[in-house]
Structure formats: C-alpha cells, structure tokens
Amino acid sequence: MAQPDSPAHVAILPSPGMGHLIPLAELAKRLVHQHNCSITFVIPTDGSPSKAQRSVLGSLPTTIRSVFLPPVNLSDLPEDVKIETTISLTVAREMKEPVKIPGCLPIDGGELLDPAQDRKNDAYKWLLYHTKRYRLAEGVMVNSFTDLEKGSSTGFARVPGVEGSECLKWLDDQPHGSVLFVSFGSGGTLSLDQITELALGLEMSEQRFLWVARSPNDAVSNATFFSVDSHEDPFNFLPKGFLERTKGRGLVVPSWAPQPQVLSHGSTGGFLTHCGWNSTLESVVSGVPLIVWPLYAEQKMNAWMLTQDIKVALRPKASGNGLIGREEIANVARGLMEGEEGKRVRNRMKDLKEAAARVLSTEDGSLSELARRWKNQKWN
Ligand SMILES: O=c1ccn([C@@H]2O[C@H](COP(=O)(O)OP(=O)(O)O[C@H]3O[C@H](CO)[C@@H](O)[C@H](O)[C@H]3O)[C@@H](O)[C@H]2O)c(=O)[nH]1
C-alpha cells in the first residue's frame, strides 16, 4: 500500500509460458532500476517450476521476489483442449493435490516442513530466502546416500547450474557470422517426420548450425509450452548417423539454450525461429536475420510481418503433405547465410538493430507515466 512518496510495490502475475514470463521480467527490471518500484512475481504453474523459469527468476535482482502459486491439476482436461483453456485454468484454480517436488513422491502440503505452512510468518520468508540461495553454491554435501533417496538425488542433480555454457564455448570457436541458430521457443515441437527433414536439410545445407532439439510430438506443435523439457531424450529421434556426420560443423543441444546470449554472439549469423514475439525482438536487438517457421499462437502473423512488411526474414515452403522438405530447408538456409537474398535481409536487420538500440537507450515516457500513477494511487 504505497504512500504518495514511498516506492510502489507491484505484483506481476504472468500467465503460464516462458514467452510471457521473460518480457515481464524485463519490465520488472526497468520498474526497479528506473522507477524504484519493488516487485513480486506471483507465478501460476501446473507442476514444479521448470528449469527455465527458475533460471530467469534466479537471474533477477534480489529486489524482485517471486512466489509460486500451488500447482493446478490439469489431468482431467479433454485431450483436444486448447492452450488458451489450459492457460486460463492454470491461472484460476486452487490446488488441492499433493505437492510434486522433483524426484520425490507427491506429498500432501500439510506434511511439508513447518515453516512452509504459514506464509505470513517470518519463518516462511527465511525458508524461501535460504532455499533460493542453495543454487548459488558450487555443490552441496548431503548427509544421506543415493540408494536411500534415489528419486530426490536424481531430481537434485537436475537443478540448473552453468548449463548452456557448452554452446557458448562452441560458438567461440566458430567463424564470425557463420552459425545458423535453430530454435522453436519455449514450447515448440515438431513431428518425427519433420525433425528428420530438418536434420537432413541442415546437413545438406553444409552450413554451421546450433540446434535446440526437442523430442517429437505428432499431435501438437506446442507440447513443451508448460514444461520446456522434453519428456524423452531428443537425440534418440535424430536420423541415424546425423550427429557423427555433422560433428564440428553442427551442435545439437537438448531442450534449451541461453538464447539471448547465443543471438548476441558474434558467430551467430542467422536464426531459424518459430516467430514467438520475444525471439523476434531478441533477434532484432542482436541484428540477426531470420528464417521463419511459425507453429502456433499468433506466430503466422509475426512471420507474415517479418517477411512481407519489414522484410528481414526468408520463409521455407511446405510441400503438399504439409512437411517442409529437406531440399527446401537446405536452400533457404544457404540462401540466408550465403545468398544475395540473405544479404538483403541482413542489411535491413542491421538498420532495425540500430533503431532498437536507439529505443533502448532512451527513457521510456509511457513507463514513467505509469510508475508515477502507481506511486500516487490512493489505496483503500
Ligand atoms: O532454448 C531456448 C528457447 C527459448 N528461450 C527464450 O524463451 C523465450 C521464448 O519466447 P517467444 O519467442 O516469445 O516464444 P514462446 O515461448 O513460444 O512465446 C509465446 O508467447 C509469445 C508472446 O509473449 C508469443 O509471441 C508466442 O507466439 C507464444 O508461443 C525467449 O525469450 C527466448 O530467449 C531460451 O532462452 N532458450
């Protein structure tokens, strides 16, 4: 409850999906740094927070706090449920299910340790404070042994560390502007046949590439929207011998890569993207031209704008069976990285990068006005 000259405390409720959390995290940083607001993220979820969510939230200044709402059980929804319904239910429902801690048997909330029971109590805040700091440690010694707590030790080993640095190191060794980054956002998945065509197309193109691969889903194209992680090892679905044949020239990473850092790396020269809006903006900010491959949501509209209006992207065509074939992928990848058409979109992207830098370096008038209104708001 802000007094006229005390800083506003803003609660941000991002709807599910990394593509919604990431821009709000950027907004939160601006509100803290430029307008002295304090921020609490209130995050809905259908399970335990994903690695990617934890990594974004963990990278924020300590003045930005986050609390996770109890996970919602969505298992009784019909199979053909649309993502908009799932998102709405995740934001609206109260959870009565046992808490799912990674690697552990689901446990009734009442059985959790005492300080977790009363959110108003200081002990609860200290519990959150200390547990969040565990991830800062290089390692953790635990007074137990694996056979006693198999599940939880596996879950614990999956907590994110310096993951992602592998691909940045690999990029360091590649020539300037030579690598095509291939990624379908936080939720995008392809069918098995399409994965095969994409892999063989990248191979045929003879371009360098960094591909964030997920296991296939033949039914929907946004199968990892909520969880990011593939359910099965994506490498099991690549064509036989593909990794060996492209070794050195291509790198495949499972499920997630540090995308903004990849896009701003000097070796990255193109981005094959599903056209999520954040991916689009991140590419613009880094001046990286695009190959557009829209999958769901409003991505076709973004692809249209990028190819037809501002003309910073090339678009491969699907064949009669709905698949984008390997030859088409190879041609478009070569076209972007080496062709005349690629040169044209690259130059336009360079101009846009400069325009984006101008916007980022100036004070945002509308945000200042909003912060001023929040600050002066009279609360009942
Ligand atoms: O391996 C990865 C994959 C993604 N990201 C990040 O995740 C975000 C993905 O956002 P976005 O490109 O917008 O894709 P979605 O997560 O699919 O976003 C949803 O929300 C967007 C609006 O916020 C819409 O434009 C999209 O269509 C919708 O799918 C970006 O910041 C990426 O940098 C990574 O860091 N590493």
Q: What does it look like?
A:
This protein is an alpha/beta fold and 380 residues long. It has 14 helices and 9 strands. Helix 1 packs parallel to helix 2 and helix 12 crosses helix 13 (340-361). The relative contact order is 0.11. Bound molecules: uridine-5'-diphosphate-glucose. The site of uridine-5'-diphosphate-glucose has 24 residues, from helix 1, helix 9 and helix 10. Belongs to the UDP-glycosyltransferase family. This is anthocyanidin 3-O-glucosyltransferase. Keywords: Glycosyltransferase, Transferase. Its EC number is 2.4.1.115.
Main features:
alpha/beta, binds uridine-5'-diphosphate-glucose, 14 helices, 380 residues, transferase, globular, glycosyltransferase, UDP_glucos_trans, anthocyanidin 3-O-glucosyltransferase, 9 strands, 6-stranded parallel beta sheet, 3-stranded parallel beta sheet, UDP_glycos_trans_CS, 41% helix
Question: How do the strands and helices of this protein lay out in sequence?
Answer:
Layout: E1 9-12, H1 18-35, E2 38-43, H2 51-58, E3 64-68, H3 83-92, H4 122-133, H5 150-157, H6 165-172, E4 179-183, H7 192-205, E5 208-213, H8 242-245, E6 250-254, H9 259-264, E7 268-273, H10 277-286, E8 290-292, H11 299-309, E9 313-314, H12 326-338, H13 340-361, H14 365-376
Parallel strand pairs: 1-2, 2-3, 4-5, 4-7, 5-6, 7-8, 8-9
The protein binds uridine-5'-diphosphate-glucose.
Uridine-5'-diphosphate-glucose is lined by residues 17-20, 22-23, 183, 185-187, 212, 256-260, 276-279, 282, 297-299.
